[in-house]
């Protein structure tokens, strides 16, 4: 019974986190645009891949490296252009 309760609590915390993330996204879109949100998520995904490579030893092949570099360059360029 204790494992079931722990599992339900973890699922509940995950669900609440997802709800708050969606609310934060809607709030962000109301202040900016959906393009900005997409750019932020692309940058976030590239950072996640880089962090995974640095800290957890994930292997990144050449085409992934080029894609990450292009994504990061585009994210930085968009940041400068939107000012």
What is the strand and helix layout of this fold?
Elements: H1 2-31, H2 34-56, H3 62-81
Helix pairs in contact: 2-3
- Counting DSSP E segments of at least 2 residues, the number of strands comes to 0
Binned, the helix content reads over 70%
Number of helices: 3
Pattern of helices and strands: HHH
Q: What's the main sheet like?
A: none
The poorly predicted ranges are none
Number of domains: 2
What radius of gyration results from the CA coordinates?
17 Å
Shape: flat
Mean pLDDT: 87
Distance between the termini: 55 Å
Taken as a percent bin, the fraction of beta residues is under 5%
Keywords: Membrane, Transmembrane, Transmembrane helix
Protein name: EamA domain-containing protein
Transmembrane segments: 6-28, 35-56, 62-81
Organism: Plasmodium falciparum FCH/4
């Amino acid at each position: 019974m204790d494992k079931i309760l722990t599992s339900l609590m973890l699922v509940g915390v995950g669900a609440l986190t997802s709800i708050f993330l969606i609310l934060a996204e809607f709030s962000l879109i109301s202040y900016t645009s959906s393009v900005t949100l997409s750019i932020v998520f692309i940058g976030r995904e590239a950072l996640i891949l880089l962090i995974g490579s640095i800290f957890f030893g994930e292997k990144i092949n050449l085409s992934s490296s080029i894609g990450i570099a292009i994504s990061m360059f585009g994210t930085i360029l968009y940041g400068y252009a939107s000012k």
